Amino acid sequence: MTIARVSSATLNRTATPVSAPVSAEASVLTILVVDDDRSVAYALDRALTEKGHAVHLAFSAEEGLNTLRDSPADIVLLDLYMPGMDGTEMLRQIKKSHPATDVVTMSGAGSMRAALGTLQLDAFDFLPKPIQMRALMELIDKVREKRATPRHELSPRPLSTLFTVPDLIGKSPSIQKVADFLNRIAPTLCNVLIRGETGTGKEVVAHTLHGRSARREGPFIPLNCSALPETMLESELFGHEKGAFTDATGLKKGLLEMAHGGTLLLDEIGDMPLALQAKLLRVVETKRFRRLGSNTEQSVDVRFVGATHRDLETMVKKNQFREDLYYRLSVFSLHLPPLRDRKEDIPLLANFFIQSVARGKGPHELSPEALSRLESYPWPGNVRELHNIIEHAVVFAEGDVVKVGDLPLSLQRIGSPRLDDVSETLSAVERRHILAVFELSGESIEQTAQRLGISETLTRNRLKRYGRIPVS
């Protein structure tokens, strides 16, 4: 069951906090729902009241704090995005004045990433909207169990187990090493370079780094250095004054300025042109910059996080990347493992994606055979590819279980060769595999070579032989 919007007749109810009669059972909890969307608040009120809980409603953070002052609650169900004071600020105030109250945050926008900040602020957990009744009641049971346990028996949850962002879910030693390293470097002010193949979750890790730092209340600004031509990239980064160039019809703040007090992610930093690298280096060193067309310098307080799938050390040797910028950005260097090297995490990731994609309206688990196919696949596209495949499977699945037949054809064939497959020549198998990886890599020769573990020269020669690129 999903918490849905209710009728206009229900919406005409008074905004006075609503209470259900308190049951005689010791398990009954007092719950405060804080959400500016009245239809959602009333639906939660009705569902929780039917379970015997005492419910109070508030339609703003300010009203919620006043209600909490007058009527202490066991649990606060708190929407993160509201006009005026937002849910994050209310969470901080609750933890200061009502530390014994458990807070479960809710949001339909930015859902999983927003969880990072709230968990860091000691929220009990996070629920994405639309709210699933089963997930909500399971959380309430966990709070009830926690409150029934003597405090001295409670063990704190290690921060590394609080990850709810898909790319960081896992129990493998490699991903736990990433979590532990993040815990150590996040509180520092030093710049960080995140390395890893395409699809391993570099932006997610950067956001996690920001959420665990002292800058978490400041902005997190990502910039993809490979997505724009050099002139547009410079304008995006530094901003411009009116008349700085032909299309500059007004003043525009750059992302450097917007990231003041927070973190600037330079995604695919290896693709930044050398001329722009020199200008960026000065900002990294001096924390000062000029908008395009301006003679006035501005100071900026930004933590720089670079991310790349490229081999920057080799690029430095070939004079394709500035050595001084490389050392400025890589004070700490973090490598994300490819999914093929942490296959024990595949069941956790796959089931998480099923739950988040289906949202209670489709399958909720994988069949053993389907899971076996996923575990046998090499995952050239890493976690991002796994997410896409699960989306495909959920769409085609019938019933409560994702089966082998719901997976893309390439995964269905794994482990179950047909007679004509067995007779296929080695060269034909090689051709089919190289072309498949070429497609998955967006027809990038460099990425194809990296995923295949062979040189770019050999990759290019094979693709010429197969007619996929012209013979020079």
Structural notes for this entry:
The chain is an alpha/beta fold. It has 4 domains: 8-153, Response regulator (Rossmann fold), CATH 3.40.50; 166-335, Rossmann fold; 339-412, Helicase, Ruva Protein, domain 3, CATH 1.10.8.60; 419-465, Arc Repressor Mutant, subunit A. A 5-stranded parallel sheet has the order 2-1-3-4-5, sandwiched between helices. Residues 4-26, 151-167 and 417-422 have low confidence and may be disordered. It has helices at 8-11, 38-50, 61-70, 87-97, 111-120, 133-148, 173-185, 202-211, 230-238, 255-258, 274-286, 312-317, 323-329, 346-358, 368-376, 382-396, 409-412, 419-422, 426-440, 445-452, 456-465, and strands at 30-34, 54-58, 75-79, 102-107, 125-128, 192-195, 220-224, 239-240, 252-253, 262-267, 288-289, 298-299, 302-308, 332-335, 365-366, 401-402. Helix 4 (87-97) links the parallel strand 3 (75-79) and strand 4 (102-107). Helix 3 (61-70) runs parallel beside helix 4, helix 14 packs across helix 16 (382-396) and helix 20 crosses helix 21 (456-465).
| CATH topology term of the largest domain | Rossmann fold
What's the architecture of the largest domain, going by CATH? 3-Layer(aba) Sandwich
Beta fraction:
5-15%
- The class by helix and strand makeup works out as alpha/beta
Computed CA radius of gyration, to the nearest angstrom: 26 Å
The number of distinct β-strands equals: 16
Q: Which SSEs are present, and which pair or pack?
A:
Layout (H helix, E strand, L loop, with lengths): L7 H4 L18 E5 L3 H13 L3 E5 L2 H10 L4 E5 L7 H11 L4 E6 L3 H10 L4 E4 L4 H16 L24 H13 L6 E4 L6 H10 L8 E5 L5 H9 E2 L11 E2 L1 H4 L3 E6 L6 H13 L1 E2 L8 E2 L2 E7 L3 H6 L5 H7 L2 E4 L10 H13 L6 E2 L1 H9 L5 H15 L4 E2 L6 H4 L6 H4 L3 H15 L4 H8 L3 H10 L7
Parallel strand pairs: 1-2, 1-3, 3-4, 4-5, 6-13, 6-14, 7-10, 10-13, 15-16
Antiparallel strand pairs: 8-9, 11-12
